């Protein structure tokens, strides 16, 4: 009888774990894909909501088995930990695709206007400004993906990345802030005040990814500049009747 009950309890746990996986995996992926300031708060809210529902459901189901409280508590805690592991696993998976996500975001923002229409490079567009905006959005994605943030603890990852990799040119002097820094904040394998178990992308990996990202998106910018030049030349050569 005990073996049959153990099997039933195992099936019950698996059932609720399956529900949690379905409720969390795809939504978390979508939230990370749209990475922004509210990404991790939204993920935490989703995790709390779905975990609460699953724990409540399993708790009710277990009441039919006349289990001692310690056993019930262990099973519920296991379910809570499983929910966290689903989010952490999905975040780790998405971090492995961060370069692709960054390039996709850059391409979308650079090649399409505010109405999502393809840009036509006529010479009126400020390519420098458009490039900066698209790169900033890609940098935001990198900072969001750099660590798991399920404990609502603040960190300086975004500031560190922005300071090290952002366009910090001083308009008056033409000198970048980075050129006068005495150290490279990304020359490290860990983030300040971020436990290694929460780290998805280390500082030095961020630096390498950003270098690769810029190299692989540079051609898109060059093409746009060339298209503007071609349009301008054609306009000059067009006869006026």
Mean pLDDT: 89
Order of helices and strands: HHHHHHH
Query: What would you call the structural class?
Result: mainly alpha
Number of domains: 2
Low-confidence stretches: 169-180
**How much helix is in the residues?**
55-70%
Strand content: under 5%
**Helical run tally:** 7
**Count of β-strands:** 0
As an assembly, this protein is single chain
Query: Distance between termini?
Result: 98 Å
Q: What is the CA-based Rg, rounded?
A: 25 Å
Report the principal-axis shape.
elongated
Q: Can you summarize the main beta sheet?
A: none
Organism: Ananas comosus (Pineapple)
GO molecular function: GTPase activity
Protein name: Protein ROOT HAIR DEFECTIVE 3
Pfam family, one: Sey1_3HB
Structure description:
- This protein folds into 2 domains: 2-95, no CATH class; 98-237, no CATH class.
- The chain has helices at 2-33, 39-62, 69-95, 98-111, 127-145, 157-165, 203-237.
- Mean pLDDT is 89; it is low at 169-180.
- α2 packs antiparallel against α3.
- With 241 residues, the protein is mainly α.
- Helices cover 66% and strands 0% of the residues.
- It is elongated and about 85 Å long.
- It is built from 7 helices and no strands.
Give keywords.
mainly alpha, 7 helices, 0% strand, GTPase activity, Protein ROOT HAIR DEFECTIVE 3, RHD3/Sey1, Sey1/RHD3-like_3HB
Detail the topology: elements first, then pairings:
Elements: H1 2-33, H2 39-62, H3 69-95, H4 98-111, H5 127-145, H6 157-165, H7 203-237
Helix pairs in contact: 1-2, 1-3, 2-3, 4-5, 4-7, 5-6, 5-7
């Amino acid at each position: 009888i005990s073996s049959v009950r153990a099997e039933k309890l195992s099936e019950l746990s698996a059932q609720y774990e399956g529900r949690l996986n379905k409720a969390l995996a795809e939504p978390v992926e979508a939230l990370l894909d749209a990475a922004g300031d509210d990404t991790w708060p939204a993920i935490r809210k989703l995790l709390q909501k779905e975990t609460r529902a699953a724990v409540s459901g399993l708790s009710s189901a277990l009441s039919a088995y006349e289990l001692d409280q310690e056993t019930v508590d262990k099973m519920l805690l296991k379910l809570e930990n499983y929910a966290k592991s689903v989010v952490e696993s999905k975040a780790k998976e998405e971090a492995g695709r961060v370069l692709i996500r960054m390039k996709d975001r850059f391409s979308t923002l650079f090649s399409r206007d505010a109405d999502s229409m393809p840009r036509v490079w006529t010479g009126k567009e400020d390519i420098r400004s458009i490039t900066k905006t698209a790169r900033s959005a890609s940098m935001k994605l990198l900072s969001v993906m750099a660590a798991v943030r399920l404990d609502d603890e603040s960190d300086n990852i975004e500031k560190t990345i922005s300071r090290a990799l952002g366009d910090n040119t001083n308009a008056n002097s033409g000198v970048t802030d980075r050129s006068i820094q005495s150290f490279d904040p990304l020359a490290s394998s860990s983030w300040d005040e971020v436990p290694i178990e929460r780290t998805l992308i280390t500082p030095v990996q961020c630096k390498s990814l950003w270098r690769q990202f810029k190299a692989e998106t540079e051609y898109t910018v060059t093409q746009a500049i060339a298209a503007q030049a071609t349009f301008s030349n054609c306009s000059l050569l067009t006869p006026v009747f």
